[in-house]
Design brief:
- The complex is a heterodimer of chains A (446) and B (223).
- By secondary structure, chain A is an alpha/beta fold.
- Chain A is 32% helix and 21% strand.
- Chain A has two domains: 164 residues, FAD/NAD(P)-binding domain (3-Layer(bba) Sandwich); 167 residues, Polyamine Oxidase, Chain A, domain 2 (Alpha-Beta Complex).
- Chain B has a single domain, classed as Porin.
- Chain B contains three helices and twelve strands.
- Classes of the chains: A alpha/beta (446), B alpha+beta (223).
């Protein structure tokens, strides 16, 4: 081979090699996912919880005409803030970011928001005394070959006696459920998809402030408050959304983000009726009672976490991760315990019941040091009526059905509609918000 | 027993010297549809990031090949190859630099044909494609409870390569080449967790991985 031939061959091979990537770039990768959104239809989002807010934020950022109809007078859904109760900010609703390997973790990084790892110590109220460890391992609800029975029944089956009843109730309460209704199998199966990380983080301010500042503030101008939606008629191309005030709103697509309790209770009438398999799926997703009670004391006589109370299975020192001097203990009450306390009928009765339990644990110091309480009962809040979605016994793989779109017109988001194991979480709700925006835009992609 | 191992080692070393050894460096264009979807979902869902995450397209790699036999007149030779490729995707946003790193390790079997009397050659290879996918945020590996978030995958790679030899000097050669490869490729469920912090959103856990490669190799000994 002479020099000329060598140069010729080198040039040909090199040009060919270098051109291939650009040829593929222009031909194979043209369809960047919804990069150029060109949709001139109208989208209505029902509910200004986190899923609705994020969907609105995303659609608005893509130039889509969007309106959010919120039943209550404020946004945030199951997130909120209690001003003035303590000398540090308090979340009335969701307050922990569960793991940082998620979209909100990215937003925290990008906005340089301060969060603190919550690794506070655990104490158990066990056999009428506070202990730092339990005689038997309670980590029996994860693993292979788990049965589709309740946490309560499985605990008994595994030999956890009556003395573990409220320890197990706490484990179920973490999932927003009672031990008698939470499925060991389905809860574990859905948790297997969890990829967000196991650490829990608290915000220096509040989680609500973070969402409010970073997401809600960008869409408040397109939220119509105090507009409870009562009916959706999607029989024609144009969807008619009716509200309790007598108003009717027209849209081409609707994203429904209301809590699963509202769908289960048929608070919104659909015309035509939703497919039976979908309403059946709604009915199988659990959402139990939930309540947060903040107790203010003159001294900090309590431990950081107290697990296993019969009135409240989980108390937590609210000041962890916060800057302030007030002594605030959070009673985090879920499932049957929240139902029991709600049945007492008044905030003062709820507070008294909690103080009595704490007095038993700490030799009367609770009542002696008590200053004030604030009860946030999510079960009795209109348009919410519960804590968060959990996996019921016999539920099956119904979340996908519940979350599926109807007629390319109705789309369903919200934490209970998260099919990736991130239900019950704020970041899980956000995921469903952008998932349904993607699904919606795919139906109109040119 | 010691003598036996010594004899084996000596004969292997002798064999390697007698065989043709080739080392190379290359640029590879990668195309994996499911990874694209995952990264595009990431970009679409995060309007707060001003700089989107680039797709995992460009990679650089090195390879080493051993050809068996020392008969230079043979038109067909065969050997074994080990390739390593590295791809990186960096998005630098305010306070937030997100880096995806993909490592590909590919051991395989190679058949080499001389094409006519000219210095051109063709090669076909079948390999096992293994990969590791990692994510860093602000130069720190993303971890879950002190365990780095990472994902692995495996596939079978079929590759065709064309190139030519230029003797350099007389008993060695420089071989510019292009190649195309395809691998049906299975990746672990948490690949999406690395790419876009979720799971199951972009569908299946396998993808077709297309590789287009251009590079140059140096062969010790004439093939």
């Amino acid at each position: 081979m002479n020099r000329r031939l060598f140069l010729k061959n080198t040039t040909l091979v090199s040009i060919g090699g270098l051109l291939l990537p650009s040829i593929l770039t222009t031909n194979c990768r043209k369809e960047q996912l919804l990069e150029d959104v060109d949709y001139d239809g109208k989208v209505i989002i029902i509910g200004a919880g986190v899923a609705g807010l994020y969907a609105a934020y995303l659609l608005k950022s893509k130039g889509v005409d969007v309106l959010v109809l919120e039943a209550s007078g404020s946004h945030g859904g199951r997130m909120g803030k209690i001003p003035g109760f303590a000398d540090f900010p308090i979340d009335s609703g969701a307050q922990w970011l569960h793991g940082r390997n998620n979209i909100l973790g990215d937003l925290i990084q990008q906005t340089n928001t301060t969060v603190t790892l919550d690794d506070s110590d655990l104490f158990y109220w066990f056999n009428n005394q506070l202990v730092t460890s339990l005689p038997q391992d309670t980590a029996i609800f994860e693993g292979e070959d788990l049965p589709d029975i309740s946490f309560k029944d499985y605990a008994i089956q595994k030999g956890l006696g009556a003395e573990y009843q409220y320890i197990v109730e706490n484990l179920a309460g973490d999932q927003g459920a009672s031990a008698a209704t939470l499925s060991v199998y389905w809860n574990n199966k859905e948790e297997e998809n969890w990829v967000s990380g196991d650490d829990d983080f608290k915000f220096k301010e509040t989680f609500f402030d973070f969402i409010d500042t970073q997401i809600a503030s960008k869409v408040t101008d397109i939220i119509q408050y105090n507009t409870p939606v009562t009916a959706i008629n999607y029989a024609q191309d144009t969807i008619l959304v009716s509200d309790l005030n007598g108003g009717t709103h027209q849209a081409d697509k609707v994203i429904i983000t209301v809590p699963i309790t509202q769908l289960k209770a048929n608070k919104i009438q659909f015309s035509p009726a939703l497919p039976a398999e979908k309403t059946d799926a709604f009915s199988k997703i659990g959402m139990g009672a939930g309540m947060k009670v903040f107790l203010k004391f003159s001294t900090k006589f309590y431990d950081e976490n107290i697990i296993g109370g019969s009135v409240c299975a989980a108390y937590a020192d609210e000041s962890v991760g916060k800057t302030g001097n007030d002594n605030i203990l959070l009673a985090f009450i879920m499932g049957v315990q929240a139902e029991n306390l709600t049945a007492l009928g008044s905030d003062s009765a709820i507070t008294t019941a909690l103080l009595q339990e704490l007095d038993a644990m700490y030799s009367g110091q609770a009542t002696a040091n008590f200053i004030a309480s604030q009860v946030e009962n999510w079960t009795t809040k209109p348009y919410i009526e519960g804590a968060y979605g959990y996996s019921t016994v016999g539920m099956g793989d119904v979340r996908k059905t519940a979350a599926s779109q109807v007629d390319n017109k109705l789309f369903f988001a919200g934490e209970a509609m998260n099919v990736n194991g991130h239900h019950q979480t704020v970041h899980g709700a956000v995921e469903t918000g952008y998932r349904e925006v993607i699904n919606l835009l795919k139906t109109v992609q040119k | 027993m010691k003598r036996f191992f010594l004899a084996i080692t000596c004969s292997l070393c002798f064999g390697v010297v007698a065989q043709k050894v080739r080392v190379g460096a290359s640029y590879t264009y990668l195309y994996a549809g499911q990874w694209d979807k995952a990264i595009q979902t990431y970009n679409f869902s995060r309007p707060f990031l001003t700089k989107p995450q680039p797709l995992l397209i460009h990679s650089a790699g090195v390879s080493g090949t051993y050809f068996f036999g020392d008969d230079n007149e043979k038109m067909l030779k065969h050997g074994i190859r080990l390739s390593y490729n590295y791809a990186r995707s960096t998005a630098e946003n305010t306070n937030f630099t997100n880096i995806l790193q993909l490592h590909l390790l590919t051991p395989g079997y190679v058949m080499h044909w001389k094409i006519g009397e000219k210095a051109l050659y063709a090669e076909a290879s079948v390999s096992v494609l293994t990969s590791g996918l990692f994510r860093q945020v602000n130069s720190e590996p993303v971890s879950d409870d002190d365990t780095p978030v990472r994902a692995f995958g495996i596939g079978g790679l079929i590759e065709a390569e064309f190139g030519y030899r230029k003797l350099f000097p007389a008993k060695n050669s420089i071989d510019p080449f292009v190649s195309v490869g395809y691998a049906p490729y299975l990746f672990s469920r948490n690949s999406e967790a690395v790419l876009n912090q979720t799971s199951g959103l972009t569908g299946r856990n396998w993808t077709g991985l297309l590789q287009l490669k251009v590079g140059v190799q140096f062969t010790f000994g004439v093939l």
